[in-house]
Amino acid sequence: MTTGYSDYRVEIKNVKFTTDDGRTCPRTAIITLINPEGKESGTELFGAVDVNILYDLINEGKDIVLDNMYVSDFSLSSFRRHNNIEKKAIVPIKSLSAKNAFFESKVCNDFSHARFADGEVSFDGTHFAKGRVAFTGSVFGKGDVIFSNTYFADGNIEFNGCSFGEGDFLFKNSIVKDGIKDFQDIQFGNGEVSFANTEFNSGELLFINTRFNSGKFNFKVTRITGGKVDFHYSVFGDCDIMFERTEFGNSRVDFRTVDFGSGRINFNRSVFGNGEVNFEGASCKAGKIQFKKAEFGSGLKSFNLMEMENTEISFDRTGFGEGDVSFYESGFSSLSLKSCHLNTYFDLRLSKAQLLDISDTIVRDIVDLEPYDFPVDIKVVDLSGMRLVGKLYIDWKRNRCKEVIMRQEGTTLRQKAEQFRILKENFRETGKYSDEDEAYVMFKRFESKSWLTEQKEKGGLTKILSYVPHGFKWLVFDAMGLYATNPARVLVSMATGYLLFSIIYVLMIVFTNADIVSSTSDHLGVVARSFYHSAITFFTIGYGDHYPFGAARVISSIEGFMGVFLMSYFTVAFVRKVLR
Questions:
Q1: CA spacing 20 to 30 A to 499: which of 66, 202, 535, 574?
Q2: Residue 312 resides in a domain
């Protein structure tokens, strides 16, 4: 039956109605459908059932079969009044089937506080054309409960407080107009709970404090245009949770303190509008949560205080839109934001994580990793391929930057070097010059190791000869002055060089024919001559009162060069510190 009508007209005829399966009804209901333009768009025929007959069947404990029937003003509240039963007393119903039926009521189609016996309860393909629908506090036995392909014209439905036995609860392909959809405080049994491909339109969709057991929860391709979607305090068992391609519209989406159990949770390609999205305090025993290629709007995205230390959560290629994104003090096994555009403020101060993957991202705003009022315990951070247009708030020591990059198992030496370079550039922009020096040294070291590895892979003579320039660079640039980041270390290198050359002169004079000759009448001892000549050579003073003879000339030439080089090296390192 089509759902494209905006109104309808009912005409009851005293003509026997016969269903396809041979059931008969003494009267026929002719439903004329009227489209939004006010024109008749079709006619449907149903068997017209007197509601008092249904009440008699309930009293007699008989099966109720309403397939292809028209029912007006059915109400268990009216049934209780007619039978002098307390307002919320449980009404037992042996079995109920209402496939492809047509219900209407001036106020409410009331099935509240009923107890359905074991077996299937089906409203598959039924239209609730007028009045809200209430199953509040009802108890369902073992068996499937089916509301698939159902149409709720009023939009206000109430299942709050229901209890379901073993079996599936199917709400697939249904249409619910604007209104409050209340599924709060429900206890589902083991089985599939499916709202796949259902249109909820706007209003409030409430699953607060609902319990889902083992099985499967399916919200795939469900569409919500606006309002509120609230799963606050809900608990899932060992079941797979599917929100793939769900459209939340401009709704406020609330998953605060939800216990996701231990199954797989899938939000891939889901679309969130401009409302707030809140997962604060949500927990998961173990498993995976995926938001791959999801889309968020302009509202705040809060993933704070999530307790998922054994859970992998992935937002690969997700679009976060506008509005801050926060994972403040959350714990995960791993958090992946790979290949995302981080265009707004991201708070990634995690309380604990084995891996934070922000590789291949484009950062245009601030990504905050710097500890403030609690330690940020992240074992490995992957920054490879990051395009840093904005800034990283990160601290070299407290975030253990050296360790979190060196622990990476899936990246090359070249990629690690690039990550240290990114940190170096970032520390310069944020004014953390000591941290910049630390990152720069690690960048140059890994760059050098990467070059050596690449040369060794070529094999042959290239492999052997590559150790010469590598060793020279290590000695001169790294060991002597930490790549011009440590003036004190350069001074130590200068003093060491001066002493080394002085001792060499002493040994050469004692054991060879080399000598340090005086051009004046001043005669110094071997040690004094050696140390004095070394000083004026190292510092390129050159008084001329002492000069080398023999092989000492070669050593003096080398020392002069080393002196000039190390003094220049010290000047660069010192000025670099002062100017910053």
A1: 574
A2: no
8 Å CB contact between 346 and 366: yes
Domain of residue 2, residue span = 1-47
Full DSSP string of 32-63: EEE-TTS-EEEEEEEEEE-HHHHHHHHHHT--
Q: Are 233 and 258 in contact (CB under 8 A)?
A: yes
The verdict on 521 and 417 lying in the same domain is no
Cβ density class 529-547: b for 16+ within 10 Å, e for less: bbbbbbebbbbeeeeeebb
| Beta carbons within 8 Å of 337's beta carbon, 6+ residues apart | 315, 316, 318, 346, 357, 358, 361
Cα 540–chain centre separation: 62
In a domain, 508, yes or no: yes
Buried b (16+ CB within 10 A) or exposed e, 405-441: beebeebebbbbbbbbbbbbbbbbebebeebbbbbbb
Residue 188 lies in a domain: yes
In whole angstroms, give the CA distance from residue 356 to residue 343: 18
Residue 101: the pLDDT is 97
**In a shared domain, residues 455 and 507:** no
Mark whether 28 and 62 lie in a shared domain.
Answer: no
Tell me how crowded residue 284 is: count the other CB atoms within 10 A of its CB.
26
pLDDT the model gives residue 167: 95
pLDDT of residue 537: 92
- Do residues 319 and 341 lie in contact, with contact meaning Cβ atoms separated by under 8 Å? yes
Q: How many residues does the chain have?
A: 580
Longest dimension (CA), the chain: 144
- Total of domains in the chain: 4
Asked if residue 435 is part of any domain, the answer here is yes
**Whole-angstrom distance, CA of residue 379 vs CA of residue 233:** 31
Q: Where are the alpha helices (DSSP H) in 299-387?
A: none
Report the alpha-carbon distance of residue 226 to residue 253 in Å, rounded.
Answer: 10
Shared domain for 39 and 70, answered yes or no, is: no
- Residues 60 and 3 occupy one common structural domain: no
Residue 161 near residue 135 (C-beta atoms within 8 A) = no
Report pLDDT for 546: 84
Q: Measured between alpha carbons, how far is 156 from 143 in angstroms, rounded to an integer?
A: 25
d(CA 491, CA 514): 29
**SS3 state at 351:** coil
Locate 272 and state its tokens: 């969130």
Cβ neighbours of residue 338 closer than 8 Å, sequence gap 6 or more: 314, 316, 317, 357, 358, 359, 360, 361
How high is the pLDDT of residue 523? 77
Kindly state whether residues 83 and 148 are assigned to the same domain.
Answer: yes
Quote the CA–CA distance of 557 and 553 in Å, as a whole number: 6
Q: Are strands 331-336 and 121-122 parallel, antiparallel or unpaired?
A: unpaired
pLDDT at 122: 97
User: Per-block average pLDDT, block size 10, for the chain (580 residues)?
Assistant: 88 93 93 92 94 94 95 96 91 95 96 96 97 97 96 96 96 97 96 96 97 92 96 92 96 96 93 96 92 95 95 96 95 96 96 96 96 92 95 95 94 95 94 93 95 88 86 89 90 93 92 87 85 91 86 91 91 84
CA distance 373 to 385: 30
Cα separation, 39 vs 31, in Å, equals 14
pLDDT of residue 400: 95
